[in-house]
Amino acid sequence: MAPALINANPTIFAPTKQSLRRNDLNARALWIDQRDESDEDTEAEEDIDQQEVFDLIRGISDPEHPLSLEQLHVVSAEQIELSRNRVLVEFTPTVPHCGMSTIIGLSIRVRLMRCLPERFKLDMRVKKGSHQSEDAVNKQLNDKERVAAALENPALVDVVEQCLSTASKRDDMNPLDL
Amino acid sequence: MPSSPEIKYPYRLEQIAELTGHEDKVWSISWNPHPDHPLLASCSSDKSIRLYAYSPPSTPSSSPSTGSERKDKESEYNFRHVSTIATGHSKTVRSIAWTNDGRTLASASFDSTVGLWERSPSNADASSSSSAGDDVGGNKELGVSGEWELTTTLEGPDSEIKSVAFSTSSSSTSPSPYGNVGGLVATCSRDKSVWIWENVGDGEWETVSVIMGVHSQDVKCLAWYPGEDILASGSYDDTIKLYIDDPQDDWYDFATLEGHTSTVWSLAWEPLPSPSSSTRYLASASDDKSLRIWARTDAPKKGVLGHVNSSDQRWECVKVLKGHERSVYSVSWGHAPSFAADAGWIASTGSDDRINIWSIKALTNPTSHVPLVELIASREDAHGIYDLNAVAWAPHTTTGEMEGVLASCGDDGVVRVWKVVKND
User: Fold this and answer.
1) Is the predicted pLDDT of residue A17 greater than 80, yes or no?
2) Per residue in B319-345, pLDDT tens?
3) Ranges for the MIP18 family-like domain (chain A) (predicted)?
């Protein structure tokens, strides 16, 4: 749709093979199903790690290319920080003038708002030095009022949903999507 | 439940009401300022406004609240849902405000319009005089029921409206048959503009000014100076601007308050210390996790702030308050309860789920502009795990029972009412 792509020739990276952690979780999920319901409370408090957050966002599509954020190395597990009730997601725009950065950031935010337990406060930032308007992008992505308004804008929501349409392919093996 | 983490403070917050019903984030709350209309309003992303009537305990307490009195007092505050306005806004209702006479409620929406609402009196009002009300609310019940009707829609700004505020200078003494005639309402928006409308009577409002090019980014919040037509605005550009009307020309910004290092989310003027004095301070809340207190430091003449040469005014930050771990979204400045020998109480809240109460001590040194401020109460997890979006002190009543009462609202869709009580 866009007449000229901002980054016409992005570097593409092979996706990492499915993490061992993921398999481990799947196995446990099967096992958990057989347990008494009284165990649910303790499960609810279970910590979530970098890899699980990464698994939620790796499949999100780039707004300009039919490629995932993982394939473009926009996101990585190492760029995710967690503490008890806070997630900080850093991402790396493919080019320093990337005009799509706020769309990518918004897509990541929406994905995590939908999938992470509500107790998490989410902060986002672009990797230091990776974008010429770093502060402006960071500020916009962390302004809850702007995010709320953006999500009432049908055109913007369409773009975000397109980016997210590929992310949910992994949902069938995602224990966080209850 | 966390084990009383606020024990080290001289006061604590006791919840006196939990008001549910909104289906999405509650962004703002507003107490009707007029004693004849004891109402608390809330607005939400669910596009509705909910109105709650309240009545304080009928017998005033003789001493400051203590733990032993708590149970009795709790049962005596009565908050009940009386109306829901399905606003018809197509997007989030972000901000609401009452006129000083308590007759008109404004709803500001992300759909870039403002609705003005008035209550059509119920039958009970018409035949009121002889029959007393059915509960402690007494005749006050009559001032809160009835249908709310849209009287005017204000249009003009290009994008989401973030805040709406009525001036308090007019109509405070004798309401005219047309309500708030001469009163002003201001809005601010993502399009960087501030609009001011004037009530010209008969429910008509005219645009008196469109202020552009003052802020370089979204304008987030507005506050009218108590009793005078001076407006303050806070912005995503990290600054605060003060405006006044030039009778020969147009509204203009006469002061810029710089110091915050991120978005200014909320503003609150010091309430008039007494009818004969003038407000000296402005408080601001910011994404930089701090609150700031600003003072006019060029020794304002008693009473009149706006009519001296505005360009000579000097405003400075006199205090930075740090007590929040994330964005501070809201600040409210109220009179201190009579049992506390303070000049005022500030409530603040934000993304760290905490409500902080700060006391402003009376200025002891007449030449200093620096107020003595102390954090006197702090309530963690006030809405559980959810962000709080606003706090607001209740207007005081003659019995004193609404002193130290404030409301909060959050992303959980709940409005809570609290009373600040003394720790034993």
Assistant:
1) no
2) 999 999 999 999 999 999 998 888 899
3) 51-111
Give one DSSP letter per residue of B152-171, joined into a string.
EEEE--SS-EEEEEE-SSSS
User: Per-residue pLDDT tens for B345-376?
Assistant: 999 999 999 999 999 987 666 677 888 999 99
What is the rounded distance in angstroms from the CA atom of residue B306 to the CA atom of residue B297? 14
Contacts of A118 in chain B (CB under 8 A): 385-386
Task: With beta carbons under 8 A apart, name residues in chain A contacting B45.
Answer: 148
Say which CATH class A47-170 falls into: alpha beta
Q: Is the dihedral angle over the CA atoms B263, B265, B271, B276 positive or is it negative?
A: positive
Nearest residue to B140 via CA among B333, B419, B398, B336: B398
Q: What is the mean pLDDT of residues B233-255?
A: 95
Stated length of chain A: 178
B326 min Cα distance to partner chain A (Å): 10
pLDDT of B351 reads 97
Partner residue facing B385 (CB), from A118, A143, A145: A118
**Cβ-proximal residues to A14 (8 Å cutoff; 6+ apart), any chain:** A71
- What ipTM was assigned to the predicted interfaces of this complex? 0.87
Strands (E) located in B217-340: 219-224, 230-235, 240-245, 251-257, 264-269, 281-286, 290-296, 315-322, 328-334
Question: How many Cβ atoms from other residues are within 10 Å of residue B146's Cβ?
Answer: 17
Using CA atoms, how far residue B418 sits from B17, B277, B335, B400, in Å, is 7, 30, 16, 15
Q: Tokens in use for A55? A: 């698994």
CA distance B391 to B407: 6
CB contact (8 A) between residue B236 and residue A121: no
Q: Determine the Cα–Cα distance for residues A91 and A134; give it in Å rounded to an integer.
A: 11
Structural domain that includes position B373: 5-422
Q: Where are the domains of chain A?
A: 47-170
Between B62 and B93, the more confident residue is B93
- Work out how many domains chain B is built from and give that number: 1
Amino acid (one-letter) located at B192: K
Taking an 8 Å cut-off on Cβ atoms, the answer to whether B385 and A146 are in contact is no
The closest CB to that of B92, out of A119, A143, A148, belongs to A148
The distance from CA B180 to its chain's CA centroid, rounded to whole angstroms, is 18
CA-only gyration radius of chain A, Å: 17
Closest CA to A88 of A57, A62, A67: A57
Mean pLDDT confidence for B387-395: 97
Q: What is the mean pLDDT of chain A?
A: 81
Amino acid at B78: N
CATH for B236? 2.130.10.10
Helix, strand, or coil (residue A110): helix
State how far the Cα of B256 lies from the Cα of B72, in Å rounded to an integer. Answer: 48
Q: How far apart are CA B349 and CA B389, in angstroms?
A: 7
Amino acid B297: pLDDT: 81
Percent of chain B with pLDDT over 90: 68
Residues of A in contact with B94 (CB under 8 A): 145
Q: How far apart are the first and last CA of chain A?
A: 35
> In chain B, which residues have their Cβ closer than 8 Å to the Cβ of A121?
326, 351, 387
